[in-house]
Amino acid sequence: MQEILVEAKNLKKHFHSNSFFSRRDKAVHAVDGISFSIPRGETFGLVGESGCGKSTTGRLLLRLLEPTAGEAFFRGRSIFDLGKKELQKLRREMQVIFQDPFSSLNMRMNVGDIISEPLEIHGIGGKRERKEKVSELMKLVGLSPGHAGRFPHEFSGGQRQRVGIARALALNPLFIVADEPVSSLDVSMRAQILNLMKDLQERLGLTYLFIAHDLSTVRFLCDSVAVMYLGKIVEMGPNECIFKAPRHPYTQTLLAAVTIPDPEIKRSRIMLSGEMPSPTDPPPGCRFHTRCPHAADQCKTIEPELKDVGNGHMVSCHLAW
Amino acid sequence: MHDLVIKIVESGPPFLEMIKRLKKHKLAITGLVIITALCFIALFAPLIAPHDPDKLHLAHRLLSPGDGYLMGTDNLGRCLFSRLVFGSRITLLVGFFVVAITSTVGVALGAIAGYRGGIIDEIIMRCVDVLLAFPGIILALVIAGILGPSLFNIMFAMSVIGWTGYARVVRGAVLSVKEREFVEAARSLGASDSRIMFRHILPNVMAPVIVMATLGMAHVILAAAALSFMGLGVQPPDAEWGSMLNAGRLFMRTAPHMTVFPGLAIMITVLAFNFLGDGLRDALDPWLKETG
To answer: Which residue in A59, A109, A117 is closest to B189 by CB distance?
Structure first.
């Protein structure tokens, strides 16, 4: 049995919009009770449309946001009960890589300063040691250490993403939340960054929470996958189960939308009608019933539970068996 | 045929790039030269002025420019050029002082309001709204009326309202910058609030503040001259451009030089700051767009 590194239990995050003069209490149910666990050294993929709460989940695990309810554990310790000092320690062990390499780097700082900032914050090493560590990290992610004095705008998108990865690795973390790290890169860059991430995982024993809306990258990188819809996990399981035998109609439509670079292969297209309902008041029953091609009467009233259908493959659908 | 696409890659720290772009802006450089010259004149006023600016020469009253006096004399026989030279000290002092105070207070309060949000934000921004509902010059008149007319009091009066503009701009900029991912990255690294503020947020909101402060100099100098013209600011016999204009008003027909020269001095100074401000805005713009 592998060690569970990160665990979420019934995690919820509702956003309220109230200011002093206008008090309206309509909460956005960004994350609405999700549970999962990530074994050490594995990559856990979180997939879903934009607005389904996958980034919010990542930010909760990093404690960049406080949860409305629920718990999360890192190496068995609750993340949300930590005091300031303990939180600071935790920050060394989990890091984040962002989607947009243009906005994730402070353009007023040179790349060397950006990468050494985590060391500075945690008071690691003297000036010279930090400098050495920076060139070491830059080499590790495939950048030339001679470019440490340059500014982010002098780099390409892929190179900037490498800078972001180097920054995340500076504190030797165990766990990295990668929030759509390749979504804003072009295809050739994507492969390079994904390979880099895979390579780093093998060398440093990293555990990833890989957030994406693109299934092909998830399939390539992840050991297990969870599909989110409107703040809930609708299907979760090992990579092969999800991609070879998806049970939830939402997962099936998502997979049907993946482009296959071979015109010979015939595939069925399932088109979804309508938009994702507003997370301010999610539909009753199964959240997907408004768009589900198979929706039955019970789907409109009874909310399906996440049930194991074998081999750790979990589905939340009344009709999935 | 192939089109040759040449991509100009700008390189170097953002600040140096801004200087490079500013250098291409001729009007801004003109403004900068004038401002530098003014600062020089103000610093070395006693060496530059040919006469004591306050010494009365009743025998030499209302002399035209030329006659032994570069710009002539006023109704009390004082050398107009020397008075203008010494007047530049007060003008620049008022400008720098008021802009320094208003921008510091405005940036600090705007940054706190934007970063903290919530009730603190509401309190600060509603104060700004109240102050902005007041016509500035009337408020200055009231303050000068209560505290008595003096240079210090008009600087105080202008500072009381002046910070609001900075606060609004900075709050807006902070609101947008704090949502950017590098701020979140810094938080996930465990950076303290003050570190995030001073290393990540403030450097990224300073561009509009620099432009505002430069244009604000022109505005303050003009307002100070107007208040002095109305007799609320600098009191005689001290030389100040606004009050010199007022003194010359009575002799406009017989000795126009008494109003023309102080008027020109005010105009040139204000123009210089406006040119520089415009140039700075253009130079900072490509970068403002990226920040916004």
So the answer is: A117
Residue of A nearest to B193 (CA): A121
Tell me whether residues A108 and B189 touch, CB distance under 8 A: no
Dist. CA B282–CA B285, nearest whole Å: 5
Count Cβ atoms within 10 A of the Cβ of residue B258 and give its class: 0-12 exposed, 13-18 middle, 19 or more buried: buried
Q: Which residue of B has its CA nearest to A118?
A: B189
Segment B149-178 shows an average pLDDT of: 90
Domains and CATH numbers, chain B: 41-291 (1.10.3720.10)
Task: List chain B residues with CB under 8 Å of A105.
Answer: 182
- The percent of residues above 70 in pLDDT, for chain B, comes to 93
Q: How far apart are CA A172 and CA A94, in angstroms?
A: 9
Q: Is residue A240 part of a domain?
A: no
Range of the domain at A262: 246-321
Degrees (nearest 5) of the Cα angle A276, A267, A270? 20
Q: Summarize pLDDT for B231-282 with one digit per residue, the tens.
A: 888 887 788 899 899 888 889 888 898 899 999 999 999 999 999 999 988 8
Helix axis angle for A127-140 and A157-169, nearest 10°, is 130
Q: Taking the model in full, what pTM does it have?
A: 0.82
ipTM for this prediction: 0.85
Q: Is A321 on the interface with B (CB under 8 A)?
A: no
Q: Is residue A115 part of a domain?
A: no
What residues in chain B have their Cβ under 8 A from chain A's Cβ atoms?
Answer: 9-14, 118-119, 122, 180-182, 184-192, 195, 199-200, 203-204, 290-291
Residue A18: inside a domain, yes or no?
A: no
Distance CA A136, CA A121 (A): 19
Reference A302, options A292, A289, A320, A315; nearest CA is A289
Scored b (16 or more CB within 10 A) or e, A188-200 reads ebbeebbebbeeb
Split into its structural domains, chain A has a count of: 1
Helices and strands, counts by H and E, chain B: 12, 0
